[in-house]
Amino acid sequence: MIKDLLARLLAPAPAPLDDQDARLALSALLVRIARSDHNYSDTERDRIDRILRTRYDLDLGGAILLREQAEALEAEAPDTVRFTRAIKDAVPYENRMSVVEALWQVVLADGKRDAAEDALMRLSASLLGVSDVDSARARQCAEASS
Fold first, then answer.
1. Predicted TM-score (pTM) of this structure
2. Which DSSP string corresponds to 79-131?
3. Which CATH number characterizes residue 106's domain?
4. Which residue segment(s) compose the domain that 61 sits in?
C-alpha cells in the first residue's frame, strides 16, 4: 500500500488521491512536521492521534494504526512537495485551512516552536496554497484550542 501510494505521488502527473490515500498523505505530513525538529515526542504522537480521531471519526486503535502507517510513509517519502501537492489536489481550499490548523496543533503540541518546524510550516502552508494571513489565523485557532 505504501509503495503504491509513493509511486502515485512520484508520478509526473499524479492523479487526485482517493479518501484513504489522502488521509494517509495528510497523516504523513503531520508526522513530518512533528519530526522536523528531530524530537518526535510522545506529546506530538498523542496530538496526531487526537487529530486523526477527530478528523476521521476513528477510535484510538484506528488512529494509532493510521499514524503508524503514516510514519512508515513519511520515512520513505522523498520530500514534502509531493505530500502537499497530493493534499492540495484532493482537498478544497476551505478544508485545507483545517489541514493547516492541524499542522499548527502538532507544531505547538510540545509547547516549543522550533525554527525547523516553523520553516516546514511556512513551506507546507505555501505549497497547500494557503496564504500567510490564513495560516496565521489557523495558528491562532490552534493556540486557542490547546
1. 0.88
2. -HHHHHHHHHHHS-HHHHHHHHHHHHHHHHTTS---HHHHHHHHHHHHHTT--
3. 1.10.3680.10
4. 2-6+19-145
